[in-house]
Every structure is written in structure tokens, then in C-alpha cells.
Design brief:
333 residues, Serine Threonine Protein Phosphatase 5, Tetratricopeptide repeat
Length: 333
């Protein structure tokens, strides 16, 4: 069974450095952040391989030694055991190459996206695998021999198929009832989490939203609120991880795009924020908040398109947009 906190500890310990993937101001800072991200990702991958109970003792010892187990062999071992996806394996190789180039002075803005995606995907896959109670229980049962039971005599057919069918129907109904209960319980957690967020009880809201995501990883609302919580607390790397997850499931969601713009504004990158706000406007052009945020970001980055964008905005919003001056973006909710 995967111990997700232990496997992901290198990422947690490098949180401040990984934050620089969002907040960097100079190429040297990005190069340093890429190196830190790659070191943390590689370390977590090696811990992930060691966490597999099927790994031999010799492989367990070699996993933490890059000389004994170079990256290609490490990734191959993880893939053979289905511990990482093919997509994550590819992103790991991309990050390794980006970090190597950055160390020699060749650093590119797109490398930040490569690193952020690799970190986000690794967190998601490890957490999802660790949060699978059925898989964990089955693995434990097989490993401990708990599935072995004494042989029981099998009775001859009784000619009562209707009775068997009745039991099957009852079993299906029971499973449906359990599913409905779990769905309702998750919805209750989300409603309670939103209420806690509105009351500024961010710690309680975070805990409840995490419970929602644990049972439903593609819950966009929970991921979006977690990103807002982390942004407000200055945990920009964690906010970016949640938004990357949300964009993975809903790349065109205007609320997610707008929140990503807010995150980039908080990181002091209004030019990149403007791109996200523009995408939010394209998807939902009737929402005034999207236009307001876009114009604020354009003004903050001294973009000459401000007047043109205001002219394209809904007529009833143009007066308000003309009055906007560079400053903090109004964030909602």
C-alpha cells in the first residue's frame, strides 16, 4: 500500500522552491526552481518504487542510488508495476531534460509549465492510488492470506433459480443504496465546506473540500475552492496544483481560468494573468467579472490593447472598465 505523504514528502519539503515556478522574475530564479522541482520529483519517484511491496530487497536498495538505477531504468520499473501512467513517464523525461538544459544556462519560460504539470500529475497519481480503499484492502487481503478460507461443501442445484435471482436483485439494490448515501454525504460535505469558506473558516473549509476531492477527484468546485483557499494563504504552489487538476478535467471552465488569472496576479505576472482572463471572457463573455479582471491585468502590464478590449466589452460595462486603474484585481467570491 502506498504511503502518499511519505512518497510526496520531497515535494512538500521543496514547496517554497517550487513556488518559484509561478513567482519567478528572472531566468536564474526559474533555472533554480526547475532544479529544485526535478530533484524533488526524482526523489519522490524513487520512494514510490520502494513503496511497492513486490520490489525485491536489491531493487529497494538500488532505488535511492541514481548510479545503480538511472532514470530510464527507474521509470521502466515504475511503469512495469503500473505505479505511474505513460503520460506521467513522458512528463518526467521532459522535466529531466528541462532541468539539465537550465543547469547549463538554457532556460525557457515553457519549462515552468513542464515542471508544474509534472509535479501536479505526480501528486494526483500518487494520491489517487493511495486513496483507493478497495485496492488497498484487496492488496492487504492477498498479502496476508486473509482470502484463504476452509473448503466448504457445495450443495447440488435445488432448482430454485427465482430465489437466487431475488438475492441478486437485493444485492444490487443494496449497492445502489450505498452509492446514493455516499453521493449525498459528499454533497453535504461540499455544502458545508462552501459555508465554512464564506464564513472565513478556511481551515475547516480546506479539510471538508479535501474530503470531497478524496472521494471525487474530478470535483471542479472543490478543486476551485481549494485553489482559492491556498491563494489567500499565500500557498501559491498548492493553489497551482489544484488549478492544474481542475484544468485537467475542465480546460474551458471560465471560473477556473479566472482563478488562475488571480493566482498569476498574486504572483506578480499580470501579462500571463491577462491570457487567462481573456480565455475566461471568450467562454463567458457576459460575465462582467471576467472583463474587469482582464482590463485590470492589461493595465497592470501596460498592454496597449486596453482601449480595444473595452470597446469590445458589453456596453453597460464600458463606463466601469474605463474607470479601472492599475491595482489589485477584484477577486470573487
Amino acid at each position: 500500500m502506498i504511503d502518499a505523504p511519505r512518497v510526496l514528502r520531497p515535494l512538500s519539503e521543496s514547496g517554497d522552491a517550487i513556488d518559484k515556478l509561478v513567482t519567478y522574475e528572472r531566468p536564474a530564479e526559474l533555472a533554480e526552481a526547475l532544479g529544485a522541482a526535478w530533484t524533488a520529483v526524482e526523489r519522490s519517484l524513487r520512494l514510490l518504487l520502494r513503496s511497492d511491496p513486490g520490489v525485491s530487497e536489491s531493487e529497494r536498495l538500488a532505488a535511492l542510488a541514481p548510479d545503480d538505477m538511472p532514470l530510464p531504468k527507474l521509470v521502466e520499473g515504475l511503469r512495469q508495476r503500473n505505479l505511474i501512467s505513460m503520460e506521467l513517464a513522458g512528463r518526467v523525461h521532459e522535466l529531466a531534460q528541462a532541468a539539465q538544459r537550465a543547469a547549463s544556462g538554457d532556460v525557457r519560460a515553457s519549462d515552468a509549465d513542464v515542471a508544474r504539470t509534472a509535479v501536479s500529475d505526480l501528486r494526483r497519481e500518487v494520491t489517487t492510488a493511495a486513496d483507493s480503499p478497495i485496492q488497498a484492502a484487496a492488496h492487504h487481503a492477498v498479502a496476508t492470506g486473509a482470502v484463504e478460507e476452509p473448503v466448504q461443501p457445495v450443495s447440488a442445484p435445488t432448482g430454485r433459480p427465482r430465489l437466487v435471482l431475488g438475492f441478486l436483485v437485493l444485492a444490487v439494490l443494496a449497492l445502489v443504496a450505498v452509492a446514493i448515501y455516499l453521493i449525498r454525504r459528499g454533497g453535504g460535505n461540499e455544502a458545508e465546506a462552501i459555508a465554512a469558506f464564506k464564513q472565513q473558516q478556511l481551515g475547516i473549509a480546506e479539510q471538508k473540500f479535501r474530503q470531497v476531492v478524496a472521494s471525487k477527484p474530478d470535483d471542479i468546485i472543490a478543486l476551485l475552492y481549494l485553489a482559492r483557499i491556498y491563494r489567500r494563504e499565500g500557498r501559491l504552489a498548492s493553489a497551482d496544483t489544484m488549478l492544474s487538476e481542475a484544468l485537467h478535467y475542465a480546460p474551458d471552465d471560465p471560473d477556473v481560468r479566472r482563478e488562475r488569472g488571480h493566482l498569476l496576479m498574486a504572483a506578480g505576472q499580470p501579462d500571463r494573468a491577462a491570457v487567462e482572463y481573456e480565455r475566461a471572457v471568450r467562454v463567458d463573455p457576459k460575465a462582467r467579472v471576467n472583463w474587469i479582471a482582464w482590463v485590470q491585468a492589461l493595465r497592470a502590464s501596460n498592454d496597449p490593447r486596453v482601449a480595444e478590449v473595452i470597446q469590445r466589452a458589453p456596453p453597460d460595462a464600458q463606463a466601469e472598465l474605463n474607470a479601472i486603474r492599475p491595482g489589485p484585481v477584484t477577486t470573487t467570491p
